[in-house]
Amino acid sequence: MHKRIKLTIAYDGTRYCGWQIQENGITVEEMINKSLSGLLGEKICIMGASRTDAGVHALGNVAVFDTHTRIPPEKISYGLNQRLPEDITVQKSEEVPKEFHPRYAAAIKTYEYKILNRTFPQPICRLYTHFIYYPLDVEAMQKAAAYLVGEHDFKSFSSIGGQTKTSVRTITALDVEKEGDIITIRVSGTGFLYNMVRIISGTLIQVGQGYRTPESVQEIIEKRDRRFAGPTAPPRGLTLIGINFTGNDDKIIDMGGQV
Amino acid sequence: MHKRIKLTIAYDGTRYCGWQIQENGITVEEMINKSLSGLLGEKICIMGASRTDAGVHALGNVAVFDTHTRIPPEKISYGLNQRLPEDITVQKSEEVPKEFHPRYAAAIKTYEYKILNRTFPQPICRLYTHFIYYPLDVEAMQKAAAYLVGEHDFKSFSSIGGQTKTSVRTITALDVEKEGDIITIRVSGTGFLYNMVRIISGTLIQVGQGYRTPESVQEIIEKRDRRFAGPTAPPRGLTLIGINFTGNDDKIIDMGGQV
After folding, report:
1. Is A182's Cβ below 8 Å from some Cβ in B?
2. Which residues of B line the annotated binding site?
3. Mean pLDDT over residues B114-141, rounded?
């Protein structure tokens, strides 16, 4: 009898062409499939919860796969980490019900977009933050963020290329915080459109720069047109923090340590 | 008339063979010399305060050079950063008295050694922390650290290859703190022997693992023999935070933002 195993996965997205397998470069999904197939001696194809873009990082992306292995579920992480490169680490492996699918299970996803806001870039955080030397007005960004919380049609905040039928989504929380030189946009929701977090971040940055008023965000939502929102902020600032499955078929996941 | 210019420099040491120019690979000193010579149109050879090892990072290393340029001293940083690669950034440029030499001026240097202490590595901080899965006893490390503060002969904590005549140094502060999964060993002193901070860190890690008692550090100091101390901890965990020049010939430097 096969078992369904859930993996919680952290990665540095810098050198990957995103999560999803594609022809033009190496991806996180591909690296995990290869390592898992080697470890278990079966051909494994994982199903991921979030297909992060090229250059985007994760502390807790989630994937599942089916296997006949006799390795205890919680031990798979150890064997897998010995085969994976240093920039991908499985944080947890566990058995889940066979009907559990991370893309269709009810869940809250949390992302953080980090901005380094100071006179000069800081080399040791260059890969995980978006550098802006122009001082940002955090209070204005917080005001603007408030308009986005709740259920809205986020069509203005979505790149073409998304495959979903409706662009209505619910943002359950959206906070902007500053600590030292780092401004963090932390957003949680039940689902996100293609590039949605990066377009929200790009729009909030323009509010912080004074190019837009906080109130203008309300108008952008109403326009339902991508051209009215700000630019798509660069991928390096974005990290998928974790996915909290809210259904009864799964328990709340550990998001893993944060730095 | 020439001027003496002081640079405060941050870098990610990952891909460099350390600070000092050598034949076998690229170094931070070499990159700055090339960029400065190109910017100013004169051949520049900087004099650095701290010759950090391969893989060691800095938020605030210091170097000086002499120039006839008409570029205002504080503007040199902007021009230089446009020529430097993304993993080296000048945080400040300023004119200093002509007799100021960063290696001989009285100064307190501060280093941090960061340990990631959790079950699995975290990809996004792998380049800037040393990963240890075995839980460390931070309290024991703090007790051990107390023995090292003050003026001592640190011969046991020095690798061969150092060029100094005496191995007596003064540690003005040595703190061990844990925040989340990160243990930080923060050490300040008037000067350090070759590999001294990494050998102190390697020894404190062994105390944290229970291989040594805190009290044994006193014995290690008294032995004045490298073989009695712990191993040299890996370079990636080490960052030169800043150098505080204490003489009257220079003011306290800004250490730059920390993450």
Report:
1. yes
2. 111
3. 97
Is the CB of residue A50 less than 8 Å from the CB of residue A87?
no
Quick one: which of B94, B183, B200 has its CA closest to B144? B200
Which helix (H) or strand (E) segment holds residue A240: the answer is strand A238-245
CB contact under 8 A, B122 and A89: yes
Residue A254 has pLDDT above 70, yes or no: no
A88 to B123: CB separation less than 8 angstroms, yes or no: yes
Does the pLDDT at position A219 exceed 80?
Answer: yes
What single string gives the DSSP state of each residue in chain B?
Answer: --EEEEEEEEE-GGGSS-SS--TTS--HHHHHHHHHHHHHTS----EES--PPTT-EEEEEEEEEEE---S-GGGHHHHHHHHS-TTEEEEEEEEE-TT--TTTS-EEEEEEEEEEESSS--GGGTTTSEEE-SPP-HHHHHHHHHTTSEEEE-GGG--TT---S--EEEEEEEEEEEETTEEEEEEEES---TTHHHHHHHHHHHHHHTSS-TTHHHHHHHHT-GGGS-----GGGEEEEEEEE-STTSPPPP-----
Amino acid making up residue B136: L
Task: Kindly indicate the confidence band of residue B246, based on its pLDDT and cuts at 50, 70 and 90.
Answer: confident
A88: enclosing H helix or E strand: strand A88-96
Could you tell me how many residues make up chain A? Answer: 259
For residue B115, which residues of chain A lie inside 8 Å, CB to CB? none
The whole-number average pLDDT for the span A146-173 is 90
Whether A257 sits inside 8 A of B81 (CB atoms) is: no
- Report the complex ipTM: 0.88
Q: Does B160 touch chain A (CB under 8 A)?
A: no
Cβ pair A259:B91 closer than 8 A? no
The nearest alpha carbon in chain A to B121 belongs to A89
A112-116, A201-205, B143-147, B250-254: lowest mean pLDDT where? Answer: B250-254
> Which domains does chain B carry?
3-101 (3.30.70.580), 107-240 (3.30.70.660)
Active-site residue flag, B87: no
Chain A residues whose CB is inside 8 A of the B89 CB are 120-123
